[in-house]
Automatic annotation (TrEMBL):
<keyword id="KW-0732">Signal</keyword>
<dbReference type="InterPro" id="IPR021345">
    <property type="entry name" value="DUF2961"/>
</dbReference>
<protein>
    <recommendedName>
        <fullName>DUF2961 domain-containing protein</fullName>
    </recommendedName>
</protein>
<feature type="signal peptide">
    <location>
        <begin position="1"/>
        <end position="25"/>
    </location>
</feature>
<dbReference type="Pfam" id="PF11175">
    <property type="entry name" value="DUF2961"/>
</dbReference>
Amino acid sequence: MIGKLQKIKLVICFIICCFSAFSSADQKVSFDTLLREMIDLDRLVEFPDPYYKTVQFSSYDRSTGKVNGSSWFNNLDGFGGEPVPAFEDVIAPPDKDGIGTYLVCDVNGPGAIVRMWTAMIPGKIRMYLDSSKSAVYEGDAGDFFKYPYKLFADDLNISLLDKCFTQRDASYFPVPFAKRCRIEWTGNIKDIHFYHIQIRCYEPGTKVLSFTAEQLEKSFALIQEVSNVLNEPDEQYNFSSGGDKLHESVSIKSKENKKIIDINGNKVIKELKIRLQAEDIAAALRQTVMTIKFDDSVIPQVQSPVGDFFGSGPGINPYKSLPFTVKSDGTMVCRLPMPFNSNAKIYFRNHGRQVVNCKVEVLSDKNNYNENALLFNALWRADHHLISNDPVVDLPFLVVRGTGRFIGSAIMLFNSCDVPIGAGGSWWGEGDEKVFVDEDKYPSIFGTGTEDYFNYAWGMNDIFAYPYCNQSRNDGPANRGFVANARFQIIDDLPFKDFFAFYMELLHHTRNENFSYARISYFYAQPDRLTDHVEITHAQARMPQVSESWTPILSGLGLAKGYQFYQVEQMIDSLEDNRLAFEHDPIWAGGKLVVFNPEKKGDKLCISIKIPEDGNYELKVTHAVMPGSGAYSAALDGNSISVNGTNLIQLDSPFRKMSRTIELGSYELKKGIHLLEIKSESGTENNKIGLDFLWIKKL
């Protein structure tokens, strides 16, 4: 009983065997060469030699059926108990305890594992390489997908290995194999079992040195070098040589289109730095559109709002990755090489109403790539006023005909859902990525959720940044408001010979109007590539329309069911307290936030909670996490409240303004008034406490 995806991937391997060139059969792929590729952005410019096709084995819903058929958007992709097991085959059916053995993948020919991911998977994994009958890995499944190196680490520095290979819920620990890779899972099919495994299938004749347990210690010095570059790219990324720096500073009036950079010669842009300044910087970063054309092309290779090009909009949302950096002062850096044969021209068009000041710095050098070097491309598109789930749709990220390689994407969303909790409410990312490469009749990469593609899980709204992925903005509460995610596919890039198409489902937990979905795709391609690019219009390059006020609502589904919501300003005895102020912003419920400015540590704010009848009640509070905030502790009727094992609730965020909800616990309460005390635990500076609304539910 071989799964559909397994059959497709066997065909892929056959196609590679039949049609790939053998010019690189003498090159060797090894653990060390793959390590170096993890920090080598220059290699992306040239089509892979030896050639490989990157495929993905995942727990996608096997009942999905035909492309665009009635079950195309089925979503039982690893939750457990799905009618069709989310594996390639059943090796041993479940025993009386429900434990069975299932085939994750069985790839014949030279290849390499380049990425793995899981949200959760219990059970055991066995991985066999080449013709060995002994498993090179046999152990915990969760560790295999996130920390496979731990089994081989012995006395090595685990912290360093984590920094090099683990990024959020994904592992980029490369596992090369010469002849075969077979992975089996033993566990209970009724348990949660989400997983991805991305594998390069190399052309036949490619010499690959298979991974061995001793490899980790032998390559530890190189691992340390790679880790340093991945985690400190601004200081450690090594450009191959010097180069010439070009600085330009210009002002761009409303509706003006201005050429900023014009470089002639056979060169490469090695680093591009941009900083915009304007009265409304968030609007400027979305409404100032950058266009880059190489070699007098009439169709731009790059066109995107400036902020979205760096995968971090709207506004300035600092993060650091291998290819991009966004700094807190608004300086944005791109390290992806951009070669050209005769000229490169960069234009900025101001679609906004304000004057925008632009500072641009370009580091360029002689083009030393081969004559068939690929051109850098970045294409952006946006859909505003979408209605989620009405119907569920596949949103196109990129469709291109030609030769090249896809190296990642970023999304910038506005989610106006007023249910202030993720599950059953504001979670927007149930949709899966579906990628067609060359002759694919069915996706050779079929995902399990949008956040899974971006290397996290469970719709988490925390801010994070890793060398290959980030969530640089998530306003909240839960998944409401503006969201920015990015993933850069450096070692797990997707080469294509003739055709490439990337789609992402928009599948929300609720029907949601006025959903805005902007996305950018990064890829390299030959000059004659044909894409689905359409010139960015004034209507597209705008900030999404945001209501000045919103009201949290109940949901009949999920975890928001049964709560009542109360604005904090309605629960304070006296709003004349000179320690209180109000901040007006659409991020807050009702468009208004109560800000408590304590005069000293220990100052208290009392909130009156009216309980209509005796019972057991659950309490939550939604508060502000933002610059200048302090810490507080809470007590109910004089009894201290512990949150996640601590009495101290920290609110400071150096760069971002966010709405976050914490659980205060459940309590037996009598009918009448109960006092929730908010006590400042900070000094006289950076001590403000922003409180939005309370949640109360009778259990």
